[in-house]
Amino acid sequence: MTERGTALVTGGSRGIGAAAAVALAADGWDVGVSYRTRVDEAEQVVAACEKLGRRAVAVQAEVSEAAEIERLFEAVTAELGPIRAVVNNAGVVSPAGRVADYDVARLERVFRINTIGAFLVAGAAVRRMSTERGGQGGVIINVSSRGAVLGSANEYVDYASSKAAVDTLTIGLANEVAKEGIRVLGIRPGLIETEIHEEGRLDRIGTTPPLGRPGTADEVAALIAFLASDRSSYMTGSMVDVAGGR
Ligand SMILES: NC(=O)c1ccc[n+]([C@@H]2O[C@H](COP(=O)([O-])OP(=O)(O)OC[C@H]3O[C@@H](n4cnc5c(N)ncnc54)[C@H](OP(=O)(O)O)[C@@H]3O)[C@@H](O)[C@H]2O)c1
């Protein structure tokens, strides 16, 4: 099997991040996963990666705090060696609601975690990977959402907007670091079966994508593993939808 180096997946304890960690391990990466509170699930992901013959570690870190992101990168590097791929995945949605009813606390939470968190993780990755800073290069995969394009009316326009900012981060950062050995890519999942959805949401709208069903975390993870590998070596600044035609 190809030896690929160390990958870090934020929000790797469950859902898309957990599936991505296992897909990356299957593709030859040693994997660091971060989690916020669900240590048991994060350790299960570590065990699944180890079962595939790779090294893995789980680290608790709040993605919206710069000091915690630094500690996360240091811990994973110390345990597994230099990080060559980062999946910027941790994220939250807001409760369903209309723009007219949003308050500042709600807006600050979703932008702090989804947008500021993504910037902090991307910055920490560039500081370590950039060939201009002594790094070996690498790839950053930002997990956005089809909501960034569709707008998520009557549900969470704030969430959609926080992900649109992540798309712009992908484009701008890709241009900024292309000559420093770093590729930056975005993915936009559609309706994927994970716990992120409010109770009943997938039952209500899960069959509305043109493919007639929600996607699985494994279907997103397969794309992430492809983008992290040198099989996508001529791609940077691209956004790839994995949304069943939605
Ligand atoms: N599922 C979908 O339909 C869908 C569609 C489009 C985009 N996405 C995006 O895909 C990404 C993963 O979504 P998912 O559906 O897999 O979500 P999920 O099942 O709810 O998992 C979220 C993950 O992020 C971690 N996390 C949440 N807030 C955090 C914080 N403040 N600091 C650190 N870690 C935090 C969680 O850790 P704990 O387990 O410890 O809580 C968990 O590992 C998100 O960015 C989401 O916006 C999902």
TrEMBL record:
- Residues in domain Ketoreductase? 5-181
Q: Tell me the InterPro entries matching this sequence.
A: KR_dom (IPR057326), NAD(P)-bd_dom_sf (IPR036291), SDR_fam (IPR002347)
SMART domains tied to this protein? PKS_KR
Question: Which domain of life does the protein's organism represent?
Answer: Bacteria
**UniProt keyword Oxidoreductase present:** yes
| Recorded family membership | Belongs to the short-chain dehydrogenases/reductases (SDR) family.
Q: What is this protein called?
A: SDR family oxidoreductase
In its UniProt entry, the species of origin is given as Kribbella sancticallisti
